[in-house]
Amino acid sequence: MTLTNIIANISSLNDKDKEYILDYLTRHFSPSSSQQGALIGELRERKFSHGFHCRHCGSTSVVRYGKRDGRQRYKCKDCHKLSSDLTNSPMYRSKKADKWIPFIECMLNGLSLRETASQIGITHVTAFYWRHKVLSALTKESIGIFEGLVEVDETYFLESHKGRRVIPNRKPRKRGGSASKRGISNEQVCVLVARDRNKTTLSKRVGSGRILMEQIDNTLTSHFKNDTVLISDAHNSYKSYTSTNDVEHIIINGSKKEYVKKGIYHLNNINSYHSRLKKWISRFNGVSTKYLQLYLVWFQFLDNRKMESDLSKKKQMLILASVHGTWETADKLRLRDYAF
Length: 340
Description:
single chain; alpha+beta
């Protein structure tokens, strides 16, 4: 087959297949060093969009201070510490910088730690710490303000102490086990999800057992405008919240076979989001409750950008994680009680 035939065949493909071929060629035939250079260049522009500042103390008295391993260094005149474009990013002091782009691809595909480790040539322990460094930084991304109609509902995950050798107050469960009590109890972890019609989404682990009015207040109020309309089920906590905060409230009572009001008030978007979240998170065969918030942020990043190309998502994940930054070390990640 000649080059002309190959080009003609590519031209006849649909947009999705063309994006796949472009992504494949970029990953397998573009030098990784040039990809890193382009990413670091864009990262520098995003990180210092308001002018140079020290990543350690925030001072603007920063000067260039030579290069190391081909990367520009900076020195702060106030705290006298050195930094680079990667300081405070997940890639900071990484000895395998060439592995980060393939690693982000594995995260976008939702691969397990061992699958990731095998595919890019690192240990599963390193993959664990890299994953949690990226997710810890992504938790700092701003959610924004909800506008117009906001669907709010909670979903539940079985409490998990996956990875712990000693579990307090109960015997260990086998994988796929169930709670000892029927219905909603303190063995169920409550995740509150809010989503408006512009797809602005907030998902947060708020506690155990039934949702409380105080948890709704602490989670949502700072993201609401005065004219926001909250749509929820008939749970009393939502009624108490809306009456206390003078928020317009539309109740969808599913127990009375009520699913839509006036053609526009419904919970279809939030229920669909719950379904996608549960299906996606099931691939990990259980997520420890202490890390659940990180996985909620991970899924939210993917779901909000599902219409974008893999190249765009790969670049955004790495740049956002680096811009928001994290000082989390391996020991901090391993020993903390709960992730945010």
